[in-house]
Specification:
By secondary structure, this protein is of the alpha+beta class. Helix content is about 45%, strand content about 10%. About 15% of the residues are buried.
Length: about 250
């Protein structure tokens, strides 16, 4: 009878420490799981500001001074927070976007400056300046080459021009080409991407005849004469509005 009473006492005494150890491990594990998993209020504010600014200015937002405030918030996101990785990704995107847009801006400014610089041709006689409308010259297509393939050029079929460049060129209205009559014209769409990709067309228009591009004319060379006086027979030639093709 005595040995029967002692056995349950020994089992109970040896089991209690094991149960306590298991419970302690479970408590520590749960504590470790919940620790450092809170979302970051800095990231929430930074993400909201970034989305609002980008929706307003698209890629130009990377050069906006307000983007520095977003970066400052992202840099204050704790490394052990729930949003640490997302904050690092957004910070990297902002810095890469700023570098890309700054380079595009510098390239566009350099191209515009080069376009404004007059070219010199040795041994070429200088003609006196005459205040008269310049004639629109139809230039044959240049030799094919990698640089020309990136831009609209004279001789390019109109369907190819629309397929490749319709997102950056819009109809500018008809112009009269001397000796050829009215022709369609296209001008560059005023957005950052198009200005960067086609800087030489910021001050020029593309002239087409319905089948192909016949030339590129500087806007400064266009002449817009007053409408002709009405004639009795209803005829009368329309003065040309044209310039040197480039």
């Amino acid at each position: 009878m005595e040995s029967r009473g002692a056995a349950p006492s020994e089992v109970s005494t040896s089991t209690v420490p094991r149960i306590l150890v298991v419970l302690a491990v479970v408590v520590l594990s749960c504590t470790g799981c919940s620790r450092h998993r809170d979302p970051s209020p800095e990231f929430s504010r930074a993400s909201e500001s970034f989305n609002k600014l980008y929706a307003q200015r698209l890629d130009d937002a990377f050069l906006d001074p307000k983007m520095h405030e977003v970066e400052a918030l992202l840099q204050r996101v704790p490394a052990d927070s729930l949003d640490a990785q997302a904050a690092a990704d957004l910070l990297s995107r902002i810095r890469e976007g700023r570098a890309r847009m700054q380079k595009a801006l510098d390239d566009a400014q350099a191209a515009a400056s080069a376009a404004r610089t007059p070219s010199t041709v040795s041994n070429a006689p200088r003609e006196p300046v005459v205040e008269a409308p310049a004639k629109a010259a139809v230039i044959p297509p240049p030799d094919a080459g990698p640089a020309e393939a990136l831009q609209p050029t004279a001789g390019m079929p109109l369907d190819e021009f629309n397929r490749r460049f319709a997102d950056c060129f819009q109809i500018a209205g008809p112009v009269n080409v001397q000796g050829a009559g009215p022709r369609d014209s296209y001008e560059l769409v005023d957005v950052s991407r198009c200005r960067t990709e086609h800087p030489r067309f910021m001050d020029a228009i593309v002239v087409a005849d319905g089948q192909a591009i016949i030339g590129v004319v500087p806007k400064s060379a266009l002449v817009r004469p007053p409408p002709p006086p009405p004639s009795q027979d209803g005829g009368g030639a329309v003065p040309a509005a044209a310039g040197d093709a480039g």
